[in-house]
Design brief:
With 281 residues, the protein is of the alpha+beta class. The protein has six helices and eleven strands.
Length: 281
């Protein structure tokens, strides 16, 4: 389990945190990153938002000077191109996507290595959650939507690292992944707000590596179903999970939202993932 002693995650006393603005907020109506205007050392700070047909992504880059503005721009374009390509190529709502073709039996997962990776991840999460995350238990067949957004973010982040950028944050909705340091030179300061009780102080973390996945904060009723019965999940109002990989955290959050309190058993000693929020109705 993630603990206070691990260098990549530190749990911060909100009373002390109030004197420092968070870099990122989750669970609020205003999901825009806070802007401090402070850039530490010889760094190139970039913020960019891109929309696809299914999601909006915000990328914050804190690139080293040696990458250069041109190199930073190329890395950003490469990451954005990856997000757009995944939307076009794997979106289950697109009739010509690889996922749709797989559902119709026109291709096999082995036909395309990234598709095989996506299917394998879904199968692994079905096993890890006792079937509460089940990409095959949906009308029409295979639908990886519960982890597709996180998978897209992680693949885009890999493009940034390949270009030499190891300090970044990528957000989509109530999910994010971060690595390294924010523009001010310290760890990313993340405030996770309760989705319904605005009076509660946010849970505050400082992250240098990790991801936070959330299910249930969009307000859409019935968007997650019990894969065993097909009925809409109704035990929780939201579920938030933190861990190393956003695709996995996303899938865990979706499964926990569907399973309710019974899903807490998945996060025992030795797990790399931890529940930040499981708010009952």
């Amino acid at each position: 389990m993630w603990t206070d002693e691990q260098p990549r995650t530190r749990w911060v006393d909100p009373a002390a945190f109030r004197y420092r603005r968070p870099d990122l907020r989750l669970g609020t109506r205003d999901r825009r990153p806070d802007r401090s205007g402070l850039v530490a050392g010889d760094r190139i700070a970039v913020r960019h938002t891109v929309r696809t047909s299914t999601a909006e992504y915000t990328l914050l880059l804190n690139a080293p000077e040696w990458v250069g503005r041109r190199g930073t721009g190329e890395a950003l374009r490469d990451a954005v191109a990856e997000l757009r390509a995944i939307d076009l190529t794997y979106g289950p709502n697109r009739p010509d996507s690889l996922v749709s073709r797989l559902r119709r039996g026109e291709i096999s997962p082995e036909s395309y290595p990234p598709l095989a990776d996506l299917v394998d991840r879904c199968a692994a999460m079905r096993a890890a959650t006792d079937g509460w995350f089940d990409a095959w238990a949906v009308p029409g067949g295979f639908d990886p939507g519960g982890l597709l957004g996180g998978w897209a973010v992680e693949r885009a982040a890999a493009r940034l690292r390949a270009a030499g950028i190891h300090d970044y944050a990528v957000l989509t909705g109530a999910d994010l992944t971060v690595r390294g340091h924010a523009a001010h030179g310290g760890p990313w300061r993340v405030a996770v707000h309760h989705p319904t009780d605005r009076r509660r102080a946010p849970l505050v973390l400082e992250l240098t590596s990790g991801a936070i996945g959330t299910s249930g904060v969009t307000g859409r009723q019935g968007h997650v179903v019990d894969p065993h019965t097909g009925a809409p999940a109704d035990q929780l109002v939201a579920a938030t999970v933190i861990g190393p990989d956003l695709a996995v955290a996303d899938a865990y959050a979706t499964a926990l939202y569907a399973a309710g309190p019974a899903g807490l058993d998945w996060f025992g000693p030795g797990s790399e993932y931890r529940v930040l929020l499981a708010a009952r109705r």
